[in-house]
Structures are given as C-alpha cells and as structure tokens.
Predict the structure.
Amino acid sequence: MTGSSGRRVGFRCDAGVRGGVGHLVRCVALAEELCARGVHVVFLGEVRGSEWARAQLRERGLPLVAAPRTPARLAALARELRLDAVVLDSYELPAETGAVLRGAGLTVLAIVDGDPLGQEADLYLDQNLGAEHRPFPRLPAAQSGRRLAGARYVLLRDSVRGRARSPRRAGAVPRVLCFFGGTDSAGVAPAWAEALHATGVPFQGTVVSPTPFPASDQITVIPPTDRLPELMAAADLVVTAAGSAIWELLHLGVPTALSWVADNQLIGYRELVDRGAAAGLGGTPDAAAVGVLARLLEDPAAREEHGRRGRGLVDGKGRERVAAALMALS
C-alpha cells in the first residue's frame, strides 16, 4: 500500500496452517495504522495453506514479497525496496537478523512474547498482559533498545476497534463461539466442540474450523471467516486459546473461557485466569474443563463477571502508541 509520508516499512512475518496466523494478524493491525499515517507498507514472508490469511493482506492492498532465508539477503532486499524500518515478528528467524538489518542502516522493531530470542532491535514490543512487570532478558548494550510492554501497546485491527459488543438477551439460550486461531493449527476444535456438548446444558454454538467435522445439532461448524469480530461481539461466551485473539475479546468485553495450544501461551493464560479476566479450562478438554463450561453456560452472572474484569484492559489505542514510537525512530 502506497503512502504519502515518504516512509517505507517492511513486516517480516509468516503465516500458515502449521504456525498459525497470530503473527500476521497483529502485524496487519500495525500496518493499518501506519498506512493511515501515509507510510508505504510491504509484507516480507510466506503465507502457506490459509486463504483466509492471504485475504487479510489482499483486501487491504498490502503487498507480499517472498523473504530470503538469510539475514544478509533480507537486508539486501530491504535496501532494494528502499525501506526505512523493518518489523520482525517470528520465532524462527536467525538470531542475528536484527543486528544485520541495523548494520544496513534500518530501524528494527521486534515484536516479542517475553524472550526476544537474541534479536537485536531499536524498539521491542511485548503486548502481553503484565509484561511491563516481568523482567526482560539482559542483552548486550548494542541490543538494548527501548521496550514497549503491556496491554497499553496491544495491536488491534480496524474491524475490532470500530465494534461494540452486542446487547445481551435476558433469559435466552447462550450463544457460544469456539475457535483456535485462524487455522486451528493444533487441530483441537473438534475435541472442544465435544466438551461443550458433554456439558448437557442448552446452548447455540458456532465452531470455526478449517476442516469440517460432524458435530451435535447444537453446533454449526464454519470455515475461517472475516466475520470473526462480529461473531465475537455477538457471543455470550467464547472458548479459545490464549493467543492473539484474546486481546480483541478483552477490548470487546466478551466472557471468555481459555485453554492453550502452545507453551508460549501459558504466560498470558495464567495472567488472565489469575486476574479473573477469563475462566481457565486447562490444556485439555477433560472432565474438569467440561465442569467449568457447564457452570459458565448455566450461570450468566458468572460468565459476565469475567467479561467485566477483562473489559478496559485493552483500550484499542496501542497501535497508535507503537506507530508513533516507531516513526520517531525511522
């Protein structure tokens, strides 16, 4: 997408069925903000096996360029594209990537989840709840860029920032939305759908899954969709993992029951459950998890309390703060 400020920023991230789409979604949110400020944005990486993820870029006019594997070649591509800054959002990049890009004269923003994995950057972003209170790994002086930490810096897309939660329906059968990222990379949606059914409590369920599967009459299975913010806002309860979508749910104030599908989600899971901002289901849809789901489906006040405690933790202005910090450097 071409801007008028003259500045050019590249986003180095990947998305796909195996690794999920969380990195891309939060980068898209920051890209929307930069584009609104007249910055030219390009994505550098791969989108594999997810038409939904490809559509996030295509529908916003955000170009995708294949990224070289080595840091030196990535730096050469960045110079060829006349970039001023590069945003790194990946757990799989070589640890020297940031240093090489900085050595080539580029400003580097590294989006991290706790450990920066050795990446050198001018600016670090850790948007996880409570990150500002957790120690950041000690880095050599050359690597010690400024850190933006905590929910003040959560990156939300336009489709979420401009939406309000739907009015509640007193006495109605609860509407449940169940999803696990844009691709359900761990393949857990069918098991959690069965856990919901096992509660024996009436509900109307929508489960998002890239692979269709048979479900009970209470549940409709749909493929990944751009209607997810709308579905979240309309839900009485969301069952999901503690990934990037949790920030959208907190912003909307939707009662949420959390699991996790990757170890890097455990920090966010524990923080939210300990605060009472979400109900904890544990890591598997076992009998204990079914019991938690049954209680939430039966008790509107109990689930709304989780939504109340989560509401306000994410004000929706995080991407403005991050964009301003990045543009002050690049």
Notes: The chain has two domains: 8-155+315-329, 161-310. DSSP finds twelve helices and 15 strands in the chain. The CA atoms of residues 91 and 117 lie 7 Å apart. The longest strand covers residues 8-12.
